Amino acid sequence: MALLLCLGLTAALARGCLHCHGNFSDKFSFYRHHVNLKSWWVGDIPVSGSLLSDWSQDTMKELHLAIPAEITREKLNQVADAVYQRMDQLYQGKMYFPGYFPNELRAIFREQVHLIQNAIIESRIDCQRHCGIFQYETISCTNCTDSHVVCFGYNCESSAQWETAVQDLLQYINKWHNLISPSFTCLEPPHLANLTLENASECLTQH
């Protein structure tokens, strides 16, 4: 059974993810400045403008992730392309009936949230294809800087690979987190052959 254990990660407050895309500012500036041309009802204009202005902030509120919002550049581009395509199609139309335009914006927003959630989680799950410590490059949605995620994959094909993976895990913890102590007997070589994910997780969380 291939499972995933993410190491050294804490939940981070973020403003969203789409704003880290290179075309976000230009795209959403255009959307905001042309919102007054999209509805017959004047009441739709401030509602739609608020949705667009708060897009990034509201995105993070709706993600509800227990892991940091860090997305690969490839997946960010995929999300951005999908969102911009739907937004551009919406703006190609003429003026809409009252209530239609802000409802469509909300629908696009919800789809974007799901796309970002799936993108971040899928990248973590992909770690299960590896044995031991694995790292992949990401963009931090907190400040749009380059970052990386370190995780531990359990997809080892032999007991020798598993023992090597756990030893690398111990070295990683010792180097970056300074958590190793003599009480880590549950991760010492005599116990590695029969070590399970549940036992390893319990051992780590108790120290």
TrEMBL record:
GO CC terms in record: nucleus
Highest rank taxon of the organism: Eukaryota
Record key words, sorted: Signal
Signal peptide: 1-16
Lipid metabolism as UniProt keyword: no
InterPro entries: IZUMO, Izumo_fusion
Coiled-coil regions listed: none
One Pfam assignment: IZUMO
Family: Belongs to the Izumo family.
Record's protein name: IZUMO family member 4
Native source species: Moschus moschiferus (Siberian musk deer)
Gene name for this UniProt entry: IZUMO4
